[in-house]
Amino acid sequence: QVQLVESGGGLVQAGGSLRLSCTVSERTFSMYAMGWFRQAPGKEREFVAGISWNSGSTAYADSVKGRFTISRDNAKNTVYLQMNSLQPEDTAVYYCAKDRVPLVKMVLSSEGRYDYWGQGTQVTVSS
User: Fold this and answer.
1) In sequence order, which residues have a C-beta less than 8 Å from that of residue 26 and are 6 or more positions away?
2) What is the separation of C-alpha 18 from the centre of its chain, rounded to a whole number of angstroms?
3) CA 111 to chain centre
4) Which helix (DSSP H) or strand (DSSP E) does residue 46 occupy?
5) Using CA atoms, how far apart are residues 69 and 66, in angstroms rounded to an integer?
6) How far is it, in rounded angstroms, from Cα 52 to Cα 63?
7) Which of 16, 9, 6, 21 is nearest to 126 (CA)?
8) Could you give the CA distance from residue 29 to residue 93 in angstroms, rounded to a whole number?
9) Residue 12 pairs with which residues in a beta bridge?
10) Which of 14, 17, 19, 47 has most Cβ atoms within 10 angstroms of its Cβ?
11) pLDDT value of position 105
12) Are the C-beta atoms of residues 110 and 99 closer than 8 Å to each other?
């Protein structure tokens, strides 16, 4: 069973930064694209960012472009989300997810594309 464990969430003031990490217990981690999603209270879960298996392609939601950066370290089976200039509207539970198809060059934003999910980490941004 593949496990994804997120960490790095917390409470931060508006304008601050956080770095989320997601470690994956999958020996073939390096073959799969990874995504970050978030779900705010009362809202549906939404795509935030994604990265291809070899870091050759990334994708971001318009709401986070220029503020968030996704990266990965395949040697550590870990994907990161660096979040800068955080705003109260970024408050949500953040989830990482693994693409179900290996070696895909494009990053897709559809939830159905991802087969394993972490438990989520809470990010709260105060104004």
Assistant:
1) 2, 32, 77, 98, 116
2) 12
3) 12
4) strand 46-51
5) 8
6) 20
7) 16
8) 23
9) 125
10) 47
11) 85
12) no
Sheet holding 4-7, edge to edge: 4-7, 18-24, 78-83, 68-73
CA–CA gap between residue 87 and residue 40 (Å, rounded): 13
Residues present in the chain in total:
127
Q: At 10, list the tokens.
A: 């917390």
Instruction: For residue range 35-68, list pLDDT tens digits in order.
Output: 999 999 999 999 999 999 999 999 999 999 999 9
Match 């895909």 to its residue by tokens: 104
Residue spans of the chain under pLDDT 50: none
The amino acid at 122: Q
Q: Tokens in use for 37?
A: 């999603």
**Which among 75, 99, 101, 93 has a CA at the least distance from the CA of 23?**
75
Rounded to 10 degrees, the C-alpha dihedral 11/15/17/20 comes to 60
The tokens of 17 are what? 């930064």
44 token code pair:
């549906």
Longest dimension (CA), the chain: 41
| Identity of residue 89 | E
